[in-house]
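Support request, priority: normal
Reporter: lab tech (M.K.)
Component: structure prediction queue

Hi team, I submitted a job for Cytochrome c oxidase subunit 5C from Trifolium subterraneum yesterday, and the status page still shows it as pending. I've pasted the exact input below so you can check whether something in the sequence is tripping the parser. The sequence length should be 64 residues. Please let me know if I need to resubmit or if it's stuck on your end.
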Amino acid sequence: MSGPRIAHATLKGPSVVKEIIIGITLGLAAGSLWKMHHWNEQRKTRTFYDLLEKGEISVIAEEE
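Reply from support: The job had stalled in the queue. We restarted it manually and it finished. Here are the results:
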């Protein structure tokens, strides 16, 4: 007679495909956020130079 059988959890290794998909997803999300930040900074700079060119703002302090 053999002893009672005990169900052991089988440990699996990391799923390579799952890790690649997670990595791509995180990379695209981070890249999108960075790109949106970059576009926002470009818009601010373009607005500043447009206002400067129109003469609505100045970089020289007015003397009193």
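Residues 17-57 form one domain. Residues 16-54 form the longest helix (39 residues). Let us know if anything else looks off. Ticket resolved.
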